[in-house]
Specification:
152 residues; alpha+beta; five-stranded antiparallel sheet; globular
Length: 152
């Protein structure tokens, strides 16, 4: 996951759950922790002044399922392509694709993937007051999170 991170733009987290039989609320808790880390990052504090991450139920409500076969391309795009300026690249596409394929492969074909994007209508359920894009995956034991954040 670290290979997909870009300072001040793409934040990542990965690890193993400590709770027995973790599910979506536990994954949302890890997302909330990542959002809290972004909020105190010196680069974003002035844009997120007074921001508190949504509570776990609100994060759960903002998430839409992503098919496993679409997760790697979504993750690579999130890591490589700027939300506001799509012609700008945070990472070389090949680097992002290789790392994203590896992450999805490690979590396995039975992993669950979630995003704050509604693929059906193209809407984004923002988790912050600025532009953000999230992909979160879990195999029920491990999790992987990637969040791109941008200001217009």
């Amino acid at each position: 996951m670290a290979e997909l991170s870009t300072p001040m733009r793409v934040y990542v987290a990965a690890g193993r759950f400590t709770e027995p039989q973790p599910d979506l609320p536990e994954l949302a808790g890890r997302i909330r922790t990542l959002l809290a880390a972004v909020a105190v990052d010196e680069a974003w504090r002035r844009f997120l002044l007074g921001y508190a991450p949504p509570c776990v139920p609100e994060i759960c409500a903002a998430l839409e399922p992503v098919e496993t076969d679409a997760a790697a391309s979504f993750l690579a795009r999130l890591a490589a392509v700027d939300l506001v300026w799509p012609s700008h690249r945070h990472l070389p596409v090949e680097t992002a694709e290789r790392a994203a394929d590896r992450v999805v492969s490690l979590l396995g074909a039975e992993a669950s993937w979630w995003s704050n994007h509604d693929a059906g209508c193209g809407a984004v359920n923002g988790l912050t007051p600025v532009f953000d894009s999230l992909l979160a995956g879990t195999d029920g034991e491990h999790f992987a999170l990637a969040l791109q954040i941008a200001d217009d």
